[in-house]
Write a structure and sequence with these properties.
Helix content: 40-55%
Radius of gyration: 18 Å
Oligomer: single chain
Strand content: 5-15%
Number of helices: 10
Largest sheet: 7 strands, parallel
Number of strands: 7
Bound molecules: nicotinamide-adenine-dinucleotide
Structural class: alpha/beta
Length: 278
């Protein structure tokens, strides 16, 4: 966990919304890390989550660092909930400088013809729909704000295929929507950028990636390690803040090099580093 002495007030005076700001289970997911880092850097942060208890762990962490945050509960994939939550948050924040769309779920693994249509609809409506809902509801306030930035959390699965009917396509759509936003609102001073996390160990992932799966996730990356939620938070902080004022429409992979490694190199790393067979 970052320590207070490394903070420099990079977001002093900023008002932020972070969606999916809670964490499933113990530990730190990306929404929690982003909200906490922004608050530690001086931002007032609205924590959006479906689940009040999950968001509360983020609020407690922020409060322990003397940061300023407040929870807004509801389903951001539902247009009416997103509108209500944004209205309430804007009243508390008194304006908006940056919006981070972090919500994402995985479901519907398997070949397309056997995946339940409801699973595909759910992944698309959550992973893409939450970004659309939030940009629609927050845009008037962002246009009137000072920071004027949007950061969307996609995935390397939106860049490279891994055989999933809905997750990859939904994350590719988030990348394209980010570029569209950059073009649509560039003349209004709004910047929109995307972070594409690679193999990040968060509580959500910990639930289904174990043992050998974790070793392979690490070995496949040129730098040979998994990332954590704070790696994503640092990228989001840079892209949200004014240090990236000349950067818009991009997708920044934060992946230890997974998106640049060639298939043979990845294969050799995974095999060479395999534990000896008994
Ligand atoms: N963890 C990884 O390895 C990894 C890799 C690539 C991309 N990502 C992306 O990073 C983002 C965060 O992943 P994470 O594992 O850190 O999760 P997380 O720990 O940030 O948790 C997500 C939170 O979102 C909330 N949420 C889910 N659906 C919601 C909805 N409809 N409305 C409101 N809140 C909702 C959940 O209650 C949960 O608290 C996702 O977009 C994910 O796709 C993660």
């Amino acid at each position: 966990m970052p320590q207070p002495h490394i903070f420099h007030g990079r977001m002093t005076g900023w008002r932020a919304i972070v969606t999916g700001a809670g964490t499933l289970g113990d530990g730190v997911g990306t929404g929690k890390a982003i909200a906490t880092l922004f608050a530690a850097e001086g931002a007032k942060v609205a924590l959006f989550d479906l689940d009040e208890a999950r968001a509360r762990t983020t609020l407690e962490l922020i409060n322990s660092m003397k940061g300023d945050a407040c929870i807004f509960t509801g389903n951001v994939a539902d247009a009416q909930d997103a509108k209500r939550m944004t209205g309430e948050a804007l009243e508390w924040l008194g304006g908006l400088d940056t919006l981070v769309n972090n919500i994402g779920i995985g479901a519907g693994a398997g070949q397309l013809h056997v995946v339940a249509p409801d699973d595909i609809d759910r992944v698309l409506s959550v992973n893409l729909g939450t970004v659309i809902n939030m940009c629609r509801e927050a845009m008037p306030a962002l246009l009137a704000g000072n920071g004027k930035s949007i950061v969307n959390i996609s995935s390397v699965a939106g860049i490279l295929a891994h055989g999933n009917s809905a997750y990859g396509p939904s994350k590719a759509a988030v990348i394209q929507l980010t570029a569209e936003l950059a073009v649509m609102y560039g003349r209004d001073g709004i910047r929109a950028n995307c972070v594409a996390p690679g193999h990040i160990m968060t509580p959500m992932v910990e639930a289904y990636v174990k043992g050998e799966g974790r070793r392979v996730r690490s070995a496949i990356a040129p730098i040979g390690i998994e990332g954590d939620a704070w790696d994503i938070a640092q990228a989001a902080l840079f892209l949200a803040g004014s240090e990236s004022r000349f950067i818009t429409g991009i997708t920044l992979p934060v992946d230890g090099g997974v998106t640049v490694v060639g298939p043979m190199a990845a294969y050799e790393r995974v095999v060479q580093e395999a534990p000896a067979q008994a």
